[in-house]
Amino acid sequence: MRHMIELRELTKRYGPTLAVDRLSFEVQPGVVTGFLGPNGAGKSTTMRMMLGLHRPTSGEALIGGRPYDRIRRPLHHVGAVLDADAAHPGRTAFTHLACLARSNGIARVRVTEALDRVGLTSVAHKRVGGFSLGMKQRLGIAGALLGDPAVIVLDEPVNGLDAAGIRWIRSTLRALAAEGRTVLLSSHLMSEMALTVDRVLIIGKGRLIEDTSVAEMRARFERDVLVRTPRTDELVPLLRGMGAAVTRTDEGDLVAVGVDAAAIGDAAAAAAIPIHGLTPRSATLEDVYLQMTDEAVEYRAATMEKELV
Ligand code: ADP
Description:
The protein contains 10 helices and 13 strands. By secondary structure, it is an alpha/beta fold. The chain folds into 2 domains: 5-218, Rossmann fold (3-Layer(aba) Sandwich); 222-281, Alpha-Beta Plaits (2-Layer Sandwich). The strands form 3 sheets. A 6-stranded mixed sheet has the order 5-6-7-3-8-9, sandwiched between helices. Strands 11-12-10-13 form a 4-stranded antiparallel sheet. It binds adenosine-5'-diphosphate. Residues 14, 17, 19, 37, 39-45 line the site of adenosine-5'-diphosphate. InterPro entries: AAA+_ATPase, ABC_transporter-like_ATP-bd, ABC_transporter-like_CS, P-loop_NTPase. Belongs to the ABC transporter superfamily.
């Protein structure tokens, strides 16, 4: 049941707009992958091409080695939620899923199982029109799971959800990945993704900016070490001797760049200099993400201004 998503030089042009620009990456099974980028970066367009809803201008998007429209019984391979509001408000949750199942040749028992999996059994016979956004999101995921697919693709699933809803999505996606499925979800916010995803694919202006793990992203942007000692005059030359750049804060603490906390602690101990505080400081993931996508956002603001004139 293991299926990978593969993009090869995927490109989509809408008139003068290059929405997706030679995008190549792989999304592996068994982990949750976040597809990140500012609004307008090309995430939805890319997902729509993966799901055969838009035709690429060039390049290809493959799922389990095939383009979506060449997969037989696609719901058994790929489950997607592009719009949580897709269900008819007059239908009950059960009827909505039962119709979806019938039109895709899926046994009715799967409806009950899917409702149970997303925790909607008690409201199965209530109309969707009265559902909260969180409940609609769960229903969308139940629909995506009907065919027991190996690949799950969700566009902005946590957008607008409350804390409990986000927590539910997190644990559900982690569980689905742990079963060996390929799970891809998009978001324009790093903060929403940090605790949910293992890997991140970051795009801007339709191009791939980063393909990395959340852990690597954190490690790479460890910035400096804040050091508190009553004997700064002795520690400063010692740290500089180790190659560190050292500055002082207004509070009299030292900020060292270029050496890690362990090396500072060891050197201070060897020189019998007391240390009262030693704090490695890293940029938040949101800072790092904003820094990476800054240019893409500026570009976007500039083109929007042009469009408005
Ligand atoms: P995201 O999902 O990252 O917010 P989109 O894929 O929706 O980004 O949009 C990428 C770019 O393509 C944007 O500049 C957007 O205005 C443009 N775009 C998206 N869909 C269409 C369309 N159907 N026609 C013309 N331009 C489009």
